[in-house]
DNA sequence: ACCTGAACACCGTTCAAGT
DNA sequence: ACCTGAACACCGTTCAAGT
């Protein structure tokens, strides 16, 4: 019966608003002297997010956050139950950044794409945060807000409620996965300093090209096709496929179709 | 120039074949006396996979694998470069389990779905292995084999090569994400012993139902719709959307469409 | 109520030394 | 070439004690 199963528990950061990264120094002009700012859940989430941007998911630890906040790791546990809850809060902060459009029946499909682009953009600003999505089930305020917004857009497009609900799940999984994949590449680029994106793509392309042609006839002959569109083209294709697939569930499409078939 | 950037390096387990989990005891009848079997990359991967099934991704460590193999953690590093490479090998073993159908132009779309169902089924057999996918870019033999097979199916469906290539990326991200999400639920079910799936769904449903109706009119009124289809219905919907979206790129569909429009 | 130091029970990885 | 013990530099989390 207890709702702790879902680790939702309406966190205090619900009212948090925009990402609002504050400067690291204390309130006074002498940061060494000024007694440290009081610890809050928000400050912990801010710091986690900031570090995920700088060093990726694996680089952020309870201890690294505590260090930056000039305290010990144990102190964090007064505001955050554990690492999993912190991941929840981080993901929810990112979800909260996505602007939710007023549904317009004439361009509901394009509005869905806009929401998705906005979500990916925010993830891109904080590589590393994406991995946090994969460690939790997003059920915080921001995630619910987005789900509500998406449902409303789908209804504007005459998509049946069940399809809309499942579509929300589908698309948020897709965006999370894309963000994680991009984060892996960007972390790898940091390690291998020689890896400017262009060179990497070229190298992967020739890796495909050199696969044994008898076993991999398509991959080897289509090497450049396989690695094309690392940037937005690939993602735009994904959006297009998903939204096109969703439209096949739209009631208006169904009606038009059955009319065409019926005569 | 060095291909180490991609951590592919044609692992010895290429020929590995089926999952082939062997019994834990040594070759002799007295496991304590029999000198330990020689360590191999395959045995390490087997053990990692087995543990991922039993205890999930986080429970599997270099040390836990070494312990089960009756040796110290340092010994593993003679056969596996690091944890990331091990994850690569684990994922690739799973990818290798997927049967690749002979393309049939009459049911290429259904064949794609069959491949995807098979992939998810294998992930489900090893919850935890899914999280490994999210830590790497799959480029091993098994993953390439699947990509090649998918490209062939797409060609049988007259899907342009570029669309096919991107679709392969899209669908493998989706399946990985679904598998990860399912693994999270199943791990959570293990911790909260009270959580048989039915109760959990009921609890989540009432969580949605009790959301403030003014802020979440759709989520609160559609609670049971939001949580419906936790099993295969949801996944089948995803497959249907993706394949329907893909078909809108098929040349034959395009021709039929332009013919209909052109007259 | 919030914060702290110190400790517990772990990690991945390296490295000199053995066979 | 393969394996080992011991060590290094970390983890998340707990807990009694302080304010």
List keywords for this structure.
flat; DNA-binding; disordered N terminus; mainly alpha; homodimer; about 260 residues
Radius of gyration of chain A: 22 Å
Most extensive chain contact? A-B, 65 and 65 residues
Give the overall silhouette of chain A. Answer: flat
Looking at the chains present, what oligomeric state does this protein adopt?
homodimer
> Which structural class fits the helix and strand makeup of chain A?
mainly alpha
N/C terminus separation of chain A = 55 Å
In summary, what is this structure?
2 copies of one chain form a homodimer. Chain A is mainly α.
Write a structural description.
The structure is a homodimer of 263-residue chains. The first copy, chain A, has 263 residues and is mainly α. In chain A, 61% of the residues lie in helices and 0% in strands. Chain A is built from 13 helices and no strands. Chain A has helices at residues 41-55, 62-68, 73-76, 83-96, 108-125, 129-133, 141-156, 161-191, 197-209, 217-221, 223-226, 232-247, 251-262. In chain A, helix 4 crosses helix 7. Chain A starts with 40 loop residues before the first helix and ends with a helix. The first copy, chain A, binds a DNA duplex (19 and 19 nucleotides) through helix 3.
């Amino acid at each position: 019966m207890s709702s702790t199963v879902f680790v939702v528990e309406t966190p205090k950061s619900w009212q948090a608003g925009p990402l609002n990264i504050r400067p690291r120094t204390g309130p006074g002009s002498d940061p060494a002297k000024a007694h440290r700012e009081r610890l809050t859940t928000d400050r912990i989430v801010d710091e986690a997010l900031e570090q995920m941007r700088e060093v990726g998911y694996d680089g952020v630890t309870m201890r690294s956050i505590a260090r930056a906040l000039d305290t010990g790791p144990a102190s964090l546990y007064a505001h955050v139950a554990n690492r999993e809850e912190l991941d929840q809060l981080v993901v929810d902060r990112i979800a909260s950044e996505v602007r939710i459009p007023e549904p317009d029946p004439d361009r509901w499909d394009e509005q869905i794409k806009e929401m998705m682009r906005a979500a990916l953009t925010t993830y891109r600003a904080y590589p590393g945060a994406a991995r946090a999505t994969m460690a939790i089930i997003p059920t915080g305020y921001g995630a619910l807000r987005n789900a509500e917004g998406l449902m409303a857009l789908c209804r504007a497009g005459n998509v049946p409620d069940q399809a809309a609900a499942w579509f929300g799940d589908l698309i948020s999984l897709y965006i999370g996965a894309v963000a994680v994949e991009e984060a892996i590449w960007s972390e790898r680029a940091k390690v291998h300093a020689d890896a400017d994106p262009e060179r990497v793509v070229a190298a992967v392309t020739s890796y495909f090209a050199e696969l044994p042609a008898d076993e991999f006839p398509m991959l080897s002959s289509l090497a450049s096709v396989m690695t094309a569109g690392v940037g937005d083209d690939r993602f735009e294709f994904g959006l297009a496929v998903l939204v096109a697939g969703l439209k096949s569930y739209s009631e208006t499409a169904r009606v038009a179709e059955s009319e065409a078939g019926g005569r």
